[in-house]
Amino acid sequence: VSLVPVFSSSYIYVLLPIIYSIICAVGLTGNTAVIYVILKAPKMKTVTNMFILNLAIADDLFTLVLPINIAEHLLNFWPFGDVLCKVILSIDHYNIFSSIYFLTVMSIDRYLVVLSTVRSKRMPYRTYRAAKIISLCVWVLVILIVMPFTVFAGVDVSEPDGRKSCVLSFPHPDGLWFKTSRIYTLLLGFAFPVSTICILYTMMLYKLRNMRLNSNAKALDKAKKKVTVMVFIVLAVCLFCWTPFHLSTIVALTTDLKTTPLLIGISYFITSLSYANSCLNPFLYAFLDDSFRKAFKKMLECRST
């Protein structure tokens, strides 16, 4: 979601499509590979990987529509009609909410795993099928959250040049509606899920600390530790990419900054950083998870023979 109107400087005009194209190519390749590996490799069908699969699908969906955003930027107007405008803006907003909600679910799952390990209890309800149902529920929740943006998305014709733009067209008073939409996104797309994640990881660290102090408690085994660390790092990278975007919302709501070339450049950098999150996760899985590396390697060997 662009933070400012399109800036016409030649520097931004040339640089932005290059950045978006790299994000699109890398993200589409990496996330498609993750989806392929999880679906094809029998050993990859775990609860955590089911959530990773849906995270990759969400990222793939977003990178698929980036070329349309690039085309709009290069043309400096929207030529694709009202229906596609609603689709693109909806997917743009899915990108804001889906990643953080799947990471919230993964954090809940990690907490339950740690808790069961501390208590030396099994979790018969933690199954691949249950993870599928939960993933479907997350998608339904995200669709409901994004629905207002889908309703208000549309093609706007500016006066007097008649240039078409794909924007959120709010009713009067549009300024109040715009601020409300930003607060809505900030609360549901950042504040609530991140607060939940922080509470879960604080409790998790507390449990792990007490577990080490308790000689009778079993330590987390190596595999569980690795998965927990991987989820934590994926979460940390997500927050690194998205926190500036949401902080810019707070700045926009609390200050009245003038639109300057520097501010526009910062805004595009923040937007590009949030988009980049969609192509980073596959590299994190490959770097942090041995099973992913082995599965990737096996798939490549099978295709080369």
Automatic annotation (TrEMBL):
Keywords: Cell membrane, Disulfide bond, G-protein coupled receptor, Glycoprotein, Membrane, Receptor, Transducer, Transmembrane, Transmembrane helix
Gene Ontology molecular functions: neuropeptide binding; neuropeptide receptor activity
Record flagged with keyword DNA repair: no
Pfam families according to UniProt: 7tm_1
Organism: Gouania willdenowi
InterPro entries (alphabetical): GPCR_Rhodpsn, GPCR_Rhodpsn_7TM, Neuropept_B/W_rcpt
UniProt topology in membrane: Multi-pass membrane protein
UniProt-annotated location(s): Cell membrane
Family designation: Belongs to the G-protein coupled receptor 1 family.
The protein, known as: Neuropeptides B and W receptor 1
Transmembrane segments: 12-39, 51-71, 91-112, 133-155, 183-206, 227-245, 265-288
Gene Ontology cellular component annotations, sorted alphabetically: neuron projection; plasma membrane
Residue intervals of the G-protein coupled receptors family 1 profile domain: 30-285
